[in-house]
Input
Amino acid sequence: MIPLREIAFARSGDKGSSANIAVFGRTPAAYNWLRGHLTEATVEAYFRPLGVERVTRYDVPNLEALNFVLTGVLAGGGSRSLRVDAQGKALGMALLELQVDYPENK
Amino acid sequence: MAPPLKIGNASGFWGDQPGAAARLVADQPDLDYLTLDYLAEVSLSIMAIMRAEDPGAGYARDFVDVVKSLCPFWSAGGRTKVVTNAGGLEPEACARACVAVLRAANLEHLRVAAVAGDDVLAVLKSAAGGFASLDTGEPLSAVAPRLVTANAYLGAGVIADALLAGADIVVTGRVADPSLTVGPCIARFGWTAADYDRLAGATVAGHLIECGTQACGGISTDWLDLADNLAIGFPVAEVSADGSCVVTKPAGSGGAVTAQTVKEQLLYEVGDPGNYLSPDATVSFLTLRVEPAGADRVRVSGATGRAPPDSYKVSATYRDGYRAHGMITIFGHDAVKKARRAGDGILHRLKREGCVFREHLVECLGTGASVRGIASRMSDTHLVETVLRVSVAADGKEPVERFAKEIAPLVTCGPQGVTGYASGRPKVLPVFGYWPTLVPRSAVAPSFRIMNLARP
Output
């Protein structure tokens, strides 16, 4: 198992009470693997402690990216949430800590 | 074919580096336009509160200082024009302040335009129904009496019109962030409102530079590995007549413009990449090509556009009580245990005093509090230090003011090792609810006025 950050880079941002995390493969092989393995269900389970309501994945193959929209993950968002990360700035870094079973021979 | 239009950005938000604009034009004096973004989702509600206390304060005064900082450049023959949404709730007041600065610098030949028409508060307040929240579907009546601001995201057309009328500085209120870039492109290239692919391309360019240094390595995943991350440069988009662009930054500035930094910023704050909504065009990012084009140069092409929605998006905000956050450092063995207990103590004492909070939160920074419950690599019993952060929210102001006085007493009643309290009592902040909704285009009439048209 390796942290996702070894095969991907990412950026997160906010929209009201929701956030998005764009995840990019560092190589074409990594991106192909991510398309098959980094599912909505995986991301939703990972962010459940933050109260995410729903995760939607958009595939952006021309950018070798998966864009995840995490509905309701920000507990009210920038104007209202009491959390230190009210705007989801840390969510990308958090997802990159996910341990993934990426095959060594890739 | 017309040469590319060079458009820089020197402010990604209200609070960005004050010296960025003067530095950018000094590093790249052939810049055609400088754009500066000041308005996040709830910035206008903060301006509304400022204006309630001080009429005429409903705009980003920081921008007037930026204009002042650019005067030596213009006096020396610099020709860069400026487009900004710093006008906030009072674009005309902001533009007048700019005119005063220009007059003092003997630069009153520079024309300052103010854009109006985004304020739709009266439309929403007088509505019998409709204007449901795009987030929750709730009817506006739930919050209508508490509305503070309601502003439509205007498009680029009115900015282009102001530039074509001779404006050197265009000051808007709420416009779609990318439209600050699209406006100059329309003015230069003469695109029509139906040139959707070109408008889409310029919208992508505007989206890429609207957050300042974020296009040049700021907040990138591999930030620590950037060649020079001490002073990352602000971005420049060279937009061609076909709407494609090259993203770059001034020679000698820090950071990097690579396919990676550009791709990260392309999807920043984006929902469905096949339907990026802007008042100028509905853009698909699924056809974009991102290619290296030299050192710190990345070419972005292939954007496709469709007709924009026949309504404007509106950001409305309403008052929703008060909040405050207090922070104090706890050092020593069992630091986290002690911090949590001390935080609970603050809330306990306030409850004893009769304070009622609708929400409260105790966080221990250093333990992974940014994403509580996720990705913590070790038990926090190892930590010898933490920052205790306690937050409350209430409908009324009094309990929150009382809370603000209850942090410092930990210095004497808390665990040994309480320290790092030097910044005074926490500020009591108003809470604004965010109410995104739609308004028909027919209810909005964008316009502009050049504030200093008469020859001096």
